[in-house]
Amino acid sequence: MRFTKHAVLSRYIAAIAWFSLTLLIGCSDDDHKKPSRSSSSASVSSSSSSSAANSSSSSSVAASPYAGEWYAPAYGYVLSVSAQADGFRVKTYSVTEDYCLLQNVTPNLPQEKFEQSYSYSKLAKETLRKVNGQYAPGVEYEKIAQLPSTCTEDLQTLKTDSGYAFNAERDFEIFWHTFNELYINFELRGVDWDEAYEEAVNSLGDIHTEEELFEFLSELIAPLGDGHAILIHAPLSQNLDESITKALEDEDTPNFSTNTQLRLYEKLLNEYVASLGSDDELSEEQAAEAENYIASNVDNIMETIFCYADENVDIKVKAAGEITWFTTSENIGYLFIGSMSDYTEGKSTVISDVAVDVAIAEETINEALKDLEDTDGLIVDVRFNGGGQDQVSLSFVRHFMSQPQVVYSKFAGRGDLATPVKEVVLDQPVDNLYLKPTAVLVSGDTGSAAELFTIAMSSLPQVTIIGEPTAGAFSDVLVKRLTSDIIFGISNETYLDTKGNNYEGVGIAADISVAFGTPQERKGGYDNGLDTAIDWIKAYH
User: What pLDDT does residue 58 have?
Assistant: First the structure.
């Protein structure tokens, strides 16, 4: 058995890709027969309107304004909400101009939980907004009169349905059209998607299995270099959330994604391969050696970082090992944030509970900043942070603000499907503010929610960014499925900093450019990023 470089890398990519999967429950854009919007006066009865005004205290599920069909064009999602005895049946359809798939079914969602998940409004039009924490904008759905005709007359047969037969051409068309309608920016990635279609369509006759289709689609999206364009091959059921959870808990689940920037593990693998003096595929033994080489060098880097701790102070480790802090001998604080999620010890699922993570993040950052309050400055290290939950990132940022302010803005879709740009305003907490000079260390591994943290922090006057360009993968992962057992993710959102800059596909350039994890640093036992940050903080005073 022989291994390609990609086979070794995929074992490391998987861990990063997994927590990037933010499941968005909703449906898609249907231009074939556009869903007709219902007017605010005709779509809900007077009893429903009365219930809408008191939705939080409604005693009748049947009279609730939530029931009906809801459409989010920029996300290609349609929700169909129907009343049950004490809750709601929620169906999520994924649609394109010509296709409709039933993506997820929640058979009985209690009304209280529904109201925690969605916010109803009836101003200019009736909308449902997916609750995404206190600050981060959620997906907004507009009420429509009926399901798209593709969902009522030509709903796709799934693998779990009777009469299903695998059809590579059909799944390819669904895949290509979903990207074509919803992907945020092919030009930014330097990809001609129409040309990719013409080249790919001629090879479809050679695909006879799901495994072959998975490899085919992987090659199709590889040129995007987008860490949030993800493919997963795993058994799927009507409960897509549950299916994804099971898939992510199995380390052998086939998955694919690529990156914009060269990440640390890729640098280290390239070093190992260069030492062999050959570009041949790796043998099983060499693949194991490569993994050991990567692991030992990462350990070396982490050990070097901890050597900066003052020998008279404790190194604190919290949040299931994801957050660490100490004080250096120069009286400068160091705060390591390894992830923006997964803060629970012994968690049973790789998809973490957002509310729990936010609570742990808030408790931990309060403790850390209390310990570090007498330092002369602070270094926040997110060089290993591949992302997680936006709400966790924003919880951290608030502690570095002196007053409420806009920290970034966001919109979804493009062209006619684009949503309005929404500014995100944070306010500062009452206690444990840190307003002294703060350096944020970043690398090509800094992605997704960690990049959101970075652009929000960069808007603050006492903060500078040090390191390498970040991953350039901001958008939440828009989760979709095919009729077969293949899940895929799309980037459909644009994040802008306070000056209107878009870093999707290019990454955030550091204020002070410093390479990360070089051979010279590892051999010399020093961290140039940390040294540069310490010098900057000293010079700030």
Answer: 42
Pair 409, 374: CB distance under 8 Å: no
Contact 196, 455 (CB under 8 A): no
Q: Which DSSP string do the residues of 196-244 spell out, in sequence order? A: HHHHHHTTGGG--SHHHHHHHHHHHHGGG--TT--EEE----S-HHHHH
The predicted pLDDT at position 14 comes to 40
Mean predicted confidence (pLDDT) in 35-44? 37
Query: Model confidence over 102-129: pLDDT tens digits?
Result: 999 999 999 999 999 999 999 889 999 9
Backbone torsions φ then ψ of 191, nearest 5 degrees = -120, 130
For residues 207-230, average pLDDT: 96
Query: Is the Cβ–Cβ distance between 453 and 431 less than 8 Å?
Result: no
351 vs 101, higher pLDDT: 101
Q: Which two tokens stand for residue 351?
A: 């998809």
Comparing CA positions, the residue from 403, 500, 517, 383 lying closest to residue 453 is 383
Q: Which uninterrupted H or E stretch holds 39?
A: none
- DSSP at 527: -
Q: Can you tell me the distance from the alpha carbon of 500 to that of 329, in angstroms, rounded to the nearest whole number?
A: 39
| pTM of the predicted model as reported, rounded to 2 decimal places | 0.85
Rounded Cα–Cα distance for residues 497 and 499 (Å):
5
Instruction: Report the phi/psi class of residue 482: left, alpha or beta, with left for phi > 0 and alpha for psi in -120 to 50.
Output: beta
Residue 258 CB: number of other CB atoms within 10 A?
17
Both structure tokens of 53: 């005004």
**Shortest CA distance to 89 belongs to which of 63, 127, 57, 61?**
61
**DSSP secondary structure string for all residues of 445-504:** T--THHHHHHHHHHTSTTEEEEES------S-EEEEE-SSSEEEEEE-EEEE-TT--B-T
Closest by CA to 92, choosing from 412, 477, 479, is 479
DSSP class of residue 309?
Answer: B
Assess whether pLDDT exceeds 90 at residue 31: no
Please count the CA atoms within 13 angstroms of the CA of 39 that sit on its side-chain side. 2
pLDDT at 9 over 60: no
Nearest Cα residue to 95 out of 113, 74, 114:
74
Of 474, 520, 517, the residue nearest 496 (C-alpha): 474
Q: What is the pLDDT of residue 278?
A: 87
